[in-house]
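Researcher: For the annotation table, I need structure tokens for Chymotrypsin-like elastase member 1. Please keep the output clean. Sequence:
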Amino acid sequence: MEKRIVGGDFMPENEAPYVVTVNMWKPGSSGPVTCGGTLISDRHVVTAAHCLTNVKDMFKSSYTVEVGYNSPHRDKQTKVKATKVDIHPRYIIDNKTDDKYDIAVLTFPTITFGAGVQHIPVDSGQLEPHQPLLAVGWGTTEEGNGMTNSLKRANIKVGEPSACKGAIGGFDDSNEQQVCAQKSLTPGKNICSGDSGSGVFINRNGKQYLLGIASLGINGGGETCDGANAISVFVHVISHLDFVVESSALTREYLLDKKANDKGDDQSQPGNKCDDSPPPAN
């Protein structure tokens, strides 16, 4: 939890109104464990499952999970308590974790949207190597300094499949369950494991979409995520849209913002679970 956005800068006020903190409190602890998260509605956040693995079974009796929103500065955020924690059922099987399913959905009381609070739709387009992405995270650019108060951002790029395959077991390309970002394509810029649960975003025709969730960093032979061959791995949200729909009861149309698209079509990649069946009602 020590190293965060590498080579980035501070996120200006109201430029990422969909980014939140996810704070887990255990009775008797001196402070929360904090991850990032992304608003997908006025009642739901997606984050990394590994942030909540020890929380789900003890959530109602032991842990408090808070979502902090409305500011890129943690000390100014409004906080609301989660009422439900859903972890992808395939993330832990037989006490073994599978990073391809490192996704969770939090439900909380309805919040009011405004200039500093908005949801973001899920991206369903194809990805190509070297495509630019925006990564965010709650942390410091200096080794060992711990978390800071302000949200940071960094421009990164989709990695080359050959480089990603060498670092990620079972990886084929970034159009499947995991999106790979390659630090050598943006020297000096990267995320690291401390940015867990935060989103990575893509711009399509001037509109931002949620692409993935920060899952893990691979150092690429270096001692830190500053290593020249470091790889960042994000869970591809569109690949798990069925899980998000089931956990949130949001419709596919709402999550993909299909009404806002000129063509209104679903651009989901082959191999995803996405189909044309009617979505659940809200």
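Researcher: And a one-line annotation?
Model: Residues 19-107 form a domain with the Thrombin, subunit H fold (CATH 2.40.10.10).
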